[in-house]
Specification:
Helix content is 62%, strand content 3%. It contains eleven helices and three strands; from the N terminus they run H-E-E-E-H-H-H-H-H-H-H-H-H-H.
């Protein structure tokens, strides 16, 4: 290990704990786990042959510290509500953190760039479930516009188009208006309420599914004119399919599969720590010691 790498290795435990003190959380460096219990954040021993490891470590620390600092417990009504609430809350806490400490916003932008490069953040596909398209649209749109994380800007455009193509126009417009108010969130409850508002929009649009036409009770002489009337009032099959998609989504009550920044970053840190221990014969190769906590 050269002098520069050795200096970084020696300094990072000090810097990590300094960040923790600034954010009023306890930071433990060492072992091979990346986790938090809501009060203490654990960062594993890490190698520094890869320059991205520092970004992963401090990005993880800052994101989780923001949760400790700003997030409160709120109830969820469904798997979909829980996922959307977490997305809104992640945006809220990272925005607050960046306002208090602008340098941390820079680190988080770098972290998102790493997650995009490594394929941890990916855009939705045409055949993905509507819930995933919607969740990724919200996630990437808010990260790119509200937080200035331009690495996901293209993903936001892809996700928005796929979402809007799959739902009635009114739903797409109304969900977009909710995202425009995300900057005003002041609490975890606000994040939860915005998620509920999105779900209520889906409920409203789903309830507009036209009812089947009643049986034809016209008299023989009225048959021709009645058929012409039915044609004029026939519901649009594309609109019906879109609204049925929303009905199926709400009925499933499932949580969409969307990458969570904290979980994905923590997993990458643990992977790097495990590789370092293996390569060093169990002695570790980074900040802290290599013993399992």
């Amino acid at each position: 290990m050269d002098r520069r790498s050795q200096a970084i290795q020696n300094a990072l435990p000090i810097l990590a704990r300094a960040v923790g003190r600034k954010l009023d959380v306890e930071v433990v460096v060492g072992g091979n786990l990346a986790c938090t219990n809501g009060k203490r954040i654990q960062i594993p021993s890490l190698p520094f042959s890869d320059p991205e490891v520092e970004t992963l470590a401090f990005g993880y620390l800052e994101h989780e510290a923001a949760h400790v600092r700003y997030t409160e417990a709120v109830d969820s009504t469904s798997g979909l509500h829980q996922t959307l609430s977490k997305i809104f809350e992640d945006i809220r806490i990272e925005s607050l953190l960046g306002q208090e400490y602008p340098g941390f916003a820079v680190t988080l932008r770098k972290l998102v760039s790493v997650l995009v490069k490594d394929g941890e953040f990916t855009p939705p596909g045409v055949d993905d479930p509507i819930a995933e398209k919607m969740a990724k649209y919200i996630l990437f749109r808010l990260r790119s516009q509200t937080l200035g994380q331009k690495a996901v800007e293209d993903y936001a455009q892809i996700a928005e188009k796929l979402f809007r193509d799959a739902v009635p126009p009114g739903a797409g417009t109304r969900v977009g208006s909710v995202l425009g108010r995300a900057r005003d969130m002041q609490s975890t409850q606000d994040a939860s309420d915005l998620a509920l508002e999105v779900i209520q929009i889906l409920e409203d649009e789903k309830d507009q599914i036209p009812k089947p036409d009643p049986p034809d009770t016209s008299q023989p002489g009225q048959e021709s004119s009645q058929k012409q009337s039915d044609k004029g009032n026939a519901p649009n099959s594309s609109d019906n399919a879109m609204r049925q998609t929303l009905a199926d989504l709400l009925a499933s009550d499932g949580a969409p599969q969307v990458a969570d920044l904290g979980e994905q970053t923590g997993a990458k840190l643990q992977e790097a720590a495990g590789k370092a221990m293996k390569d060093s014969g169990g002695m570790g190769a980074g900040i802290g010691n290599a013993s399992v906590p």
